Amino acid sequence: MTLRFDGRVAIVTGAGGGLGRQHALALAARGAAVVVNDLGGAVDGSGGAPAAAAAVVEEIRSAGGKAIASGASVTDFAAVQAMVAAALAEWGRVDILVNNAGILRDKSFAKMELADFRLVLDVHLMGAVHCTKAVWEAMRAQNYGRIVMTTSSSGLYGNFGQANYGAAKMALVGLMQTLSIEGAKHDIRVNCLAPTAATRMTEKLMPEAVLRLLEPGAVTPGLLALVAEDAPTRAILCAGAGSFERAYVTLTQGIHLGHDDDTPEQVALHCDAIGDRIGETVPESGAAQGTLEIDKAMRAHR
Ligand code: NAI
To answer: What domains can you pick out in the chain, each with its CATH number?
Structure first.
């Protein structure tokens, strides 16, 4: 089995460097026509230069692939719509969207300005919302779509100094959960990728020997599997240094304690039993929690 993307059209945001560039090069090398999007700014989101996306387009074309550049900021919905319109005008469809563009504004929460919190949410969360919204109708109409949200271990598990970034990255997991449900009827599969890679975003955070192991290209095989025809949906795939893991949002079986005057004390007393992971599930939708709770309550009152 070879994963090929011939005839497929992909948009990769933030593809002027780092992980996005690797994703774009790999998709193009395996047959996809690629919109290489990048604002071309600094890690903190300041500035902008269309040269970053243009250089990757040049690389793809000189290797015999198909690509066009977009300098749109994912924060600008009108510019994102124009980018999608350009892809549709050029190739007639959009099959794959890789929401990868991102910035950092790290500071401890105590020192973080609200403006830095909002900007990070705007780029990561609203950027992905804009791009997804702009391709959603075309994907529904063609009954095919593969969308990846780039999440992060900082969102899934937390990281000092990244309250803004972590919140934005976990919000993308929430976005994926519902879009995968809403897209299923039209074969739109939505997944999350949590990468670990040596890029300009992380180069100051890790020692040289570790950075060498974490070449961004080692994440891209995971991305390709998430946007392939046989892709899963609602997966959170973790990838780094050629290793792959899965993360899950789970629900424990819990216990029924009723609703009496002493229930707060009972909840505090039974923390361990409530959190017991035996019988834990990965719910298929949010309704599972209510169903489980009602079921336990009915059994308790029988
Ligand atoms: P990077 O800084 O090399 O790539 C991000 C790209 O997004 C840059 O080329 C930048 O110009 C572009 N960009 C920023 N704001 C934009 C906007 N408004 N519109 C369009 N493009 C914009 O960093 P890296 O590491 O390649 O990051 C890629 C994605 O992976 C990001 O979403 C990041 O949060 C995520 N990530 C990276 C990890 C790592 O270990 N490198 C860990 C977890 C997540």
So the answer is: 9-247 (3.40.50.720), 263-300 (no CATH)
